[in-house]
Amino acid sequence: MNTSADDGSAGQAGYRRSAGSPRGEARRRELLDRVTDDLAVNGLVDFSLRRAARAAGTTHKVLLYHFAGADDLLRQAVLKLRERRTVNAMAAATGGPADRTLADRVHAMWPLLSGDEPHLRVLDEAIGLAMYAPERFAWLGREASRLYLPSLVSLCPAGWSDQRKLEVAEMILGTLRGFLVEWRISRDAAGIAAGFEALTRALEREEADGERPPVAAPTS
After folding, report:
1. How far is the C-alpha of 105 from the C-alpha of 109, rounded, in Å?
2. For the chain, what is the domain count?
3. How confident is the model over 160-169, as pLDDT tens digits?
4. Among 35, 51, 71, which residue terminates a domain?
5. Can you tell me the distance from the alpha carbon of 166 to that of 100, in angstroms, rounded to the nearest whole number?
6. What's the CA gap between 95 and 97, in Å, rounded?
7. Which residues does the annotated region (Disordered) include (predicted)?
8. Are 179 and 106 in contact (CB under 8 A)?
């Protein structure tokens, strides 16, 4: 991935920025949609402001009028892709009978997370990039958590405390991320199915248990 300074990642002080007028905001959304569509198809490799400008049918100077630079544009495009994924996954999780268990809801989300559509692979690439260069791209992982956790919390039983909902949502998020990495690198469907069995048992125990006091976080 290339988001170098000569592509507008830094030193944009000479460019006038959009003032946020209704017309300017509509244009910004239009450009962002085009860049997001390009990112969904072509991925993060070689992403740059100039590539984004070609995809949007404009110039990099026009993009710098509406966005703070390549990293800002990438951040917003990735967020739009994640929102699409989250909406689809939550629709699968919340549809169907109202008495479905939490484990059933998590299972229903999996096909919408692990598909081979290009935009889904891009989102998994983004997590890999956050691990590869955390000093610059850690936000790709942090923002994913901020987006996904509230949705997972909302799937938990209403009677649970906020702390317990957060604990279980964190467990689900971490486990599904692990399954996604395993799926992308090994295609070990049998192994993931076995892992889901263990996750199902854990979630069933959580739903069967009464309210418990929160467990203190590790101090190491």
Report:
1. 7
2. 2
3. 999 999 999 9
4. 71
5. 20
6. 7
7. 1-26
8. no
How far apart are alpha carbons 27 and 25 in whole angstroms?
A: 5
In this structure, the answer to whether residues 111 and 56 fall within a common structural domain is no
Q: Read off the pLDDT of residues 37-77 as tens digits, 9 standing for 90 and up.
A: 999 998 888 889 999 999 999 999 999 999 999 889 998 99
The verdict on 64 and 84 lying in the same domain is no
Question: Tell me: the pLDDT tens digits for 88-138?
Answer: 999 999 998 988 999 999 999 999 989 888 778 888 888 888 888 888 888
Residue 50 sits in a domain whose CATH number is 1.10.10
Distances (CA, A) of 74 to 10, 16, 59, 121, 126: 14, 20, 16, 15, 10
Q: Is residue 212 part of a domain?
A: no
* Vertex 196: Cα angle to 193 and 202 (nearest 5): 155
Query: Domain of 197?
Result: 77-207
Shared-domain flag, residues 108 and 128: yes
